Predict the 3D structure of the following.
Amino acid sequence: MSGFWIVLTGALVASCCAILGCFLILRRMALIGDAISHAVLPGIAIAFLMSGTRDSIFMLLGAAAFGFIAVFLIEMFRSGGVQSDASIGVVFTALFAVGVVLISLNARNIDLDLDCVLFGEIAYVQWSTLEIGGADLGPKAVWLLGFTLVVILLVISLFYKQFKLTSFDPALAAALGIPVALFHYALMGLVSMASVSSFESVGAILVVGLLIIPPAAAYLLTDRLGPMLVISVAVGIVSSIAGYAAAVALDASIAGCMVCAAGVLFAAAFLLSPKHGLLALRRARSRAAA
């Protein structure tokens, strides 16, 4: 039964990240997920200091707040003339350092493990369960990630056209009266929510892999957003299943194997994509040369 919960948790994480990652890839902002996942550390530390508990709700609120702060600072620096990659690097390293300092200064009061926050351990997910009225309802991570996925699906489905247009052509979206900045921050908020929800299962760093690799593979396989979302989620779920199987066989890190499996699928898409794959491009060049 533990294998089922592990795979289900991985599939939920991959689905949340894959959907949001598609929009980040289209906006050429893939690494902002890395920035948010590191920048929320001071929010986690402050939430623990204020609440005295590692309850996921308090962690989520604290991390989401600092996720918004990180996005606001990145956008402020970008609008002030700082290059995009530089602004991302400055914000996430500075906020991450603040979180490390807070934890080190309050080491006696903060029962947090940086390795757990960054790398996670999905193998332990079944031990922290949700109990209501004495009934065991399964791992808390599954419920939290399931709630996060429902929120993501609800927001994206309700405002699909707006997210699509602001991702492909923000200038046209602004001309049509769509509040581009609002949907930008909404997307960043969802990314923050997905990152924090995944801390206890796969860790912040590995979330970045699931946030980028499945959407990048889907991007190579289709030129339409709808199919790209479906393919991205499928790649993420297959990566979770294959990664768990590989981890059991190799006795290795489960979360790491899941991301490695996603990398293998991306490599296959890069080579075999019928339109954008390396082999297809070489055949096209050979025909043109002939």
